[in-house]
Design a protein that fits this description.
334 residues; Rossmann fold; Alpha-Beta Plaits; 14 strands; elongated; translocase; transport
Length: 334
Amino acid sequence: MANRPAIRAEGLKKHYGKTQALTGLDLVVEEGTVLALLGPNGAGKTTTVRILTTLLRPDAGRAEVAGLDVIKQADLLRARIGLTGQYAAVDEYLTGLENLVMFGQLYHLSGAMARQRAKELLERFELVDAARRPVKTYSGGMRRRLDLAASLIMSPPILFLDEPTTGLDPRGRLAMWDVISNLVADGTTVLLTTQYLEEADQLANQIAVVDQGRVIAKGTSDELKAQIGGERIELTISQGGDIAAAARVLEAYSIGEPIINTDHRHIIVPVTQGAQLLMTVLRDLDNAQIPLDDLALRRPTLDDVFLTLTGHAIASEANAEGTVDARPMARSQR
């Protein structure tokens, strides 16, 4: 089928005892794109990844990856996907080269082919200088890059990344973003789970917001932000300034009901084309002799989206889902 999506899930349900991890999750990921599952710990992201990568059977629902049923055709599917879990699944007592060779052999590559592929990946991920050092001497960012390299031993067309930048400093996170972007540019389909709003904003073609085991909204970053309204001008009126007069000046530019906080002397005005309005607003307020302590143009963020949709911000919650280890998938090839 020419237009078959790379990943499709319908009505996935999974419970751990009394905990409902998934409550009917639906998902579609088109080939050659990045879909970010955005949500807090415990929302169902890792459970979804485990089902889609054949590591866990759903209690209900069905899923296909690369056109293969994740239950009925699990053995065939494992050769076509890569997985990087939340924690690096490499052996810290082996060298970087030895780790990659081991993964290659688990996938039934010959010794010579496994070494060749390992060397290619070490070069691609800028780990050549550390190739013969034990992984226990690697930094966190180096371990994450090695872990991602291991998931690419077989050049899978579909890659699952479960919070791949967890524990990395900002520099390491940016480096990992570059790696992921390059993989997608080469045609890889990526399903990415993350708690980092800026990560989803930066990398994803589509974002699925997950809460309490189901997808509650999906779209591009701009589409999701548009759901909660556009730009707004935010002002703080100086002491002695007339808030009511300021509100009357701003009324001409507002596309909705302004929000006025008299205690904090703060006004929020929903607008369109806010950047073009700022100078005019400043001029009109100055003409009305209304002094300001602060003036800003604010656009919605993914944090605003998540807060509006769920009633709470993305913050770490108790994780009932467990963690993902990439190595069981490789072992299952034996």
